[in-house]
Structure formats: C-alpha cells, structure tokens
Amino acid sequence: MGSTGPATTDTAQKDGPPRRRGPVVAGLMLTTALAALDSTIVSTAVPQIVGDLGGFSVFSWLFSGYLLAVTVTLPVYGKLSDTFGRKPVLVAGAVLFLLGSLLCALAWNMGALIAFRVVQGLGGGALQGTVQTLAADLYPLKERPKIQAKLSTVWAVSAVTGPAIGGLLAGYADWRWIFLVNLPVGGLALWLLVRHLHEPERKSAARARGEHRSAARARVDWAGALAVFACGGVLLTALVQGGVAWPWLSAPSLALFAAGLVLAGVVVAVERRAAEPIIPGWVWRRRTIAAVNLALAALGLLMVAPTVFLPTYAQSVLGLGPVAAGFVLCVWTLSWPIAAAHSQHLYRRIGFRDSALLGIGTAALILFAFPLLPYPGEAWQPALLMLLLGGALGFFQLPLIVGVQSTVGWSERGTATASILFCRQTGQTVGAAVFGAVANGVLAARLGGAGDLDSVTHALDSGAAAEATRRAVADAVHAVYLGAAIAAAVAFAVLLFVAPRRFPVLPPDPGSGPGELADRSDGPGGVAKSPS
Length: 532
Known about the structure:
The chain has helices spanning 5-15, 22-43, 46-53, 61-84, 86-105, 110-138, 144-172, 177-180, 182-196, 205-208, 213-218, 222-241, 251-273, 282-285, 287-316, 322-350, 352-369, 380-406, 410-447, 453-461, 467-497; strands spanning 503-505, 527-529. The protein is an all-alpha fold. It starts with a helix and ends with a strand.
C-alpha cells in the first residue's frame, strides 16, 4: 500500500483519534432499509389497496410515480450535498420520506395515494444518493468495501423479506401499516444521524475564491434543478407509459418525447450559463466518470431481465408457485453482497477497471447461457445461473462505484455519486420499456398476435393456455435475456475502450475527517496516483 503522505499526517494530528462510526453506520443502514423495502413491501399489498381504494387502472403509478421522483431528484440532491454538506440533505430527505409515508397511510383514494408516493420518492432520492456518498466520506479507500457490503446486504435482505412483511401486514393488519412501519424505523435512523453524524468544516468552491458563505449558497442552480426535474419527469413518463397506457407511436407518446427533447435543450442552455450547474460538464468530460456512467446504465438495463421477467418464467414455464418463483430470483441477492464484500481483494491486485471487466464479462456469458437452458427444465438450473450472475455483478458494480468516488474530492463526490446512480436508474427505466416491447413482440410473432405478456401469463395461471403458449413465453423471456447479454457486452466494451486502465485516485482532502485518511493506491494493477 502506498504511503499516506504529509497531508494525511497533518490531518490526523489535527483531528485526533477517529470518532466512533458505529452509530452513524447503523443510521445509514436503517436509512437504506427504508428505501430498499419500499417497493418490495408495497407490491404484495396491491390487491388489498385496490380493493379498498379502487383505481385498478392506474395502480401501476404507485411504483412508477415513486421511481420517477427518485430518479429525477438524484442529480439535484447530489449537487446540494456538495454545496451544503451531506447531513442536512440526508436529514431533509428522510423527513420528506417519512412525511410521505404518513400521508400514504392517510390516503383516501388512489389518486391521493399516488401523489403521496411521489412525495415519498422526492425524499427517497436524497436517501439513495446521499447514503452512498457518506459511505465514501466515512471510510478510507481500503475500508470502503466493508460499508458497501453492509449496504448491499441491507438491499439483499429487503428483497427477500419485503414481500413477506408486506403480505403479513396487508393480510393480518391493514395495508396502511406498510407505510406506518416506516415511521419508527426512520425515526431511529434520524436520531442516530442527528446525534452522531458530525461533518468536518469544509471549504466550498466559492469560499475558496474568497466569497462569503451566503454568496456560495446563492449560487445554487435552482433553475437548472427545475429544468432537470421537468426534463427527466417527462422523458421517464414517456418510457414508463409507452406501450402500456398508450401505443408507442400514438399522439401522447410522441408529444411526451418531443416535449422531453425540448426540455433537454433547455437543460443544456441553463446549465451552460450556470455558475454552479446541477449537472456540471466535467461529469461527462472525465473519461473515468463518463465510462462508469455508461457502464452502470447498461447494468440498470440488464437487471430488468431477471427482476421483471424471471418470476414470470418460473411460474409460467417451470410451473412453480409464487414462493418458489421468488426463491429462484432471490438467490442472486445472496451472492451479490458476498461478491461485493470480497471484490477489494481483486481490485487491489488488478485495479478497478479490470475487476469490473472480469465481472461484467462473466455476467455476459451467464446471460447468454440462459436461452440455452432445456425446456421446460428444472428450477435449480435458472437458480444456479442467478446465483452466479449475482456474484459476477458484485465484482462489477462495487469496484466502479468505489473507483469513481476515489477519483474526486469531497466537493465533487456527491455529484459524481449521484450521476452514476442516476444513470443506473435511467437504465432500468429504459430496460423495462425496451424489454417489455421485445417480449410482447416475440409473443405476438409466436402466437399470431394473441395478446401481450400480461394477458398470456394470466391465461396460463387459469389453466386455459396450451403448451404452445408456454413455449412462446419461454421464447419471449429467452429473447429478453439475450438482450440483457448484449447490454452486458456493451458495458464490457465501454470499460475496455473508454475507461482508463488506471483510475486516477486522489489523495485525501486536506480538510478531511479521520474517516477519509486513506492510502492513495489499492494495488499496482490499476490505480494511478493523482498529484496533490
């Protein structure tokens, strides 16, 4: 390991022994649990919610509205955390999320519930991005896999337990408790963060130029934030609803895409003139961050194949029940955090980029193998592939996140982290739209235009479908997995040809706290030390 250098020694002497991070980490894990449980716990209570409030035709917006709000606010919160600090942004986001949870529990009809879910999402964007940024602030480079593995484990446990908790609350209590349960968990997280999270005093870019603190705050790009929110909301709505609420080439779809393109032009114009833009140009001018953004967008896209289509395959083709189908899917949430926790041993030897290349290359081969499974096959076969896929993606994603966070200083880390999370979320939204169209197209070709995936799987559930229909569903899911494999191959190519082989890791900030006293390299294979 490289020497920490004079700057690190001076900081350590000034700040003294490291503060206890345990309560802060506990607060971050509880905060992560709020965001991670949200979608999975709600999904199992949909029948009870619709039965009580009605609104079956629009209930999908319980998820789409939340996803849109989270995605479009990620870059805004990232910039705000770089300007005002992580703590106020995280606390404000948690309060907004809990307020939305309380309002959801009090909803009187489906329209109100969807609106309050959007409020939840506005807070959820702060939770997701700021927790990841704080994880990098609190831990040095060589220890970051530990906190990232803990956060990944929270997501994994939530994926497994969320549906069970939601089903129990909806079945034996009342669906409103799936939102009320957030209040004590969030309250404890807030108490831990407010009491134990202490950020060192930082110099913002404006203060470094000699400006007063109030002047620095006045430079927040609120016009850019509004433009980004509007543009992202319109384009993501077009992707989420296209082919579902209306045909892709219909007037509403074309109008939304046209409005989104116009707003994208507005975003570019506003951000070019802003002194402190919400989405600064350096996010895409720096090869490392641009390559990781594109690679994680491909990750978001390929994740749609297992998360959305594998349960349908398990039930419709393999004939499994909902619980067994859920197990086939959830095994990858077990191997992913384990692989992520051990990825440090790999990237310290061969570097961030090469570790990610190994992970995504393996993932591409696994995804290509899925269409080769025998028909109808046994449940252990896709489960084994999912177990291997989770491990491969654990070795792919975490080195890229840690690598990008290590190439920027404190004043840029929130923006950089938010940019890669935004691209991953956007990739998932695009993937849901693209792969939904692919699956429905294959079904139409196999069945002579007889319905889409939803109607066909409902027929299978009722026993009214023939063997040919099951084969058509298998072919549709195989096509989706083939598309996911192509997305993995694209991510591989982006990292190979765009990302630098050696990530330019920065030394610790001169004003950093004890948590950031990091060694400047993690091995000879892939890290270049940037000048101080």
